[in-house]
Amino acid sequence: MTTKINSFNTFQSQLIKEQKENTIKALLKKNYKSAQADVEQIIALDEEKKRIQFQMDNALAEGNKIAKEIGELMKSGKKEEAEIKKTQTTNLKLQSKELQTSFETLENQLFEVLIKLPNLPHDAVPEGLSPEENVVVFESGIAPKLTENALPHWDLIKKYDIIDFELGNKIAGAGFPVYKGKGARLQRALINFFLDEATKAGYTEIQPPIFINKESGFGTGQLPDKDGQMYHMTADDLFAIPTAEVPITNIYRDVILKREELPIKNVGYTPCFRREAGSWGAHVRGLNRLHQFDKVEIVQITEPKDAEAAHQSMVEHIKSLLTKLELPYRILKLCGGDMSFTAALCFDFEVYSAAQKRWLEVSSASTFDTFQANRLKCRYKGEDGKNHLVHTLNGSAMALPRIVAALLENNQTTQGIKLPKVLVEYTGFEMIT
RNA sequence: AGAGAGGUGGCAGAGUGGUCGAUUGCGGCAGUCUUGAAAACUGUUGACUGUCACAGGUCCGGGGGUUCGAAUCCCUCCCUCUCUACCA
Known about the structure:
Elements lengths: L1 H17 L1 H10 L5 H41 L3 H38 L18 E6 L12 H7 L3 E2 H7 L6 E2 L2 H19 L3 E3 L4 E2 L1 H7 L11 E2 L4 E3 L4 H6 L4 E3 L6 E10 L18 E11 L4 H18 L4 E5 L11 E9 L4 E10 L3 H6 L1 E4 L5 E3 L1 E9 H11 L1 E2 L2 E3 L2 H7 L3 E2 L1
Parallel strand pairs: 4-9, 8-14
Antiparallel strand pairs: 1-11, 2-3, 5-7, 6-7, 9-10, 10-16, 11-12, 12-13, 13-16, 14-15, 17-18, 18-19
Helix pairs in contact: 1-3, 1-4, 3-4, 5-12, 7-13
This protein binds one RNA strand through helix 1, helix 3 and helix 4.
């Protein structure tokens, strides 16, 4: 881990040093309060680290030189001279050991500060601290007019007996629903539909592990930031994934890609697990928030110059899915304060769930610039023959539960729930009755 | 889970205390030859750090130790393979 921390430190501090004022401004935009102080500290620590490193390297170089000389003396049989040389090293060893200790201390201190910094938002990211300040950039579809006795999805699932929360509660706990009959079939249909659409769009299907180790959690930025949000299996020190982004992106941890391999486009279906500690209340009834849910995730890895276009193509892909599902939706550009720790620019997709009369987030498509790549140490060999960090991106395409909620609520009729055409070939039925 | 073997550069595979960051082969890149390709031949080819650039430093699964000096010896953790046991 030493060299890993080291290069992480170097890259980050260099960037911060070169763009000091911009960095502070960007951090503040993301509501990172101690931006000024932290940036100052990083620069100071980095300089001190370099100073110590210079001394340490010199001491080590001297030691290497003497060791080499001793070797030569031994070879030529000059034992006594060699013995004398040996005594010269005692002090040097102490010295370099001390320097190494302070070097490592500095390195760790620097790491501790750097690791707390969120990704820097793009210029295009709106200022703002709360969800109210997100900007609606696109709207599509019209909310259906429901009859007065229209039911929210948590009643519909009982009426048609397709999702059972009590049963899940018995087996696991709250937030672990059991899907039954046509409910289960609908899940499978949606997963297959989403996977097929992504495949058609050029994504390669991946089935990753759904448990990850610490290194992977660090690589995509869930650790140490979101420690408490993941289920942790202490016996084996593994975490249940909160999203397929983690294992699928970590495929490329410690990898140097060839330019021809880019862009990489992967898609994977996995269940996702989130503890959602302390975030329960009336607004998260039914399928609105769960501990376990299904999601199909798309991930791209690109050269920096292609990232923006890739981001746009992901947005278009997600739009097409919602259109095919005939759901009214809108796209929000998240403001600095509402973006995740790791994102540089993020669009949220929300569908309108007509009985709840609420917008529900069903997808978010983010670009991370080099933030994840730096942690992952994922690089590519550029035209200049040098290694550069890649850009990573991902988006949900899509998360199922809220899609299901909206489908159920918006499409309820007196005869039952009528599914959108595109799903019929996957479900084998048109109506949930 | 028990027993054994092993983890070295993109891959294969040497090296068991001293100019080893590492022989060699394959692959990759550049060139010669060729109408072109193949073959053959020649050269080149790890990462991180550091510097204006050199120099220098670190890395042979991770961590620690012995030594003037470790890929090589010791301790420890992790992982892989084979056999046995168990089992979707």
